């Protein structure tokens, strides 16, 4: 892969259907970044992340991780 361009975070409440997506641009400058997804309802949420380079090549999704949100 070439220079980092963006991160693509996919998430949802079904590990097999991550229906939400956040694209974080300027990945090169934010190489040690963190990102907070807000407004999540109570329950278990699943997440993957991919990186995309400046040539448009995108990595395979990471392993799915989960986070339980309590009210």
Automatic annotation (TrEMBL):
Tell me which domain of life the UniProt entry assigns to the organism this sequence originates from.
Answer: Bacteria
Name of the protein in question: Fibronectin type III domain-containing protein
Q: What is the lineage of its organism?
A: Bacteria, Pseudomonadati, Pseudomonadota, Gammaproteobacteria, Pseudomonadales
């Amino acid at each position: 892969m070439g220079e980092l361009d963006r991160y693509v975070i996919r998430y949802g409440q079904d590990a097999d259907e991550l229906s939400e997506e956040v694209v974080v641009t300027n990945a090169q400058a934010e190489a040690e970044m963190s990102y907070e997804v807000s407004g999540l309802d109570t329950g278990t949420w699943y997440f993957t992340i991919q990186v995309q380079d400046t040539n448009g090549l995108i990595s395979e999704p990471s392993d799915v991780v989960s986070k339980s949100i309590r009210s």
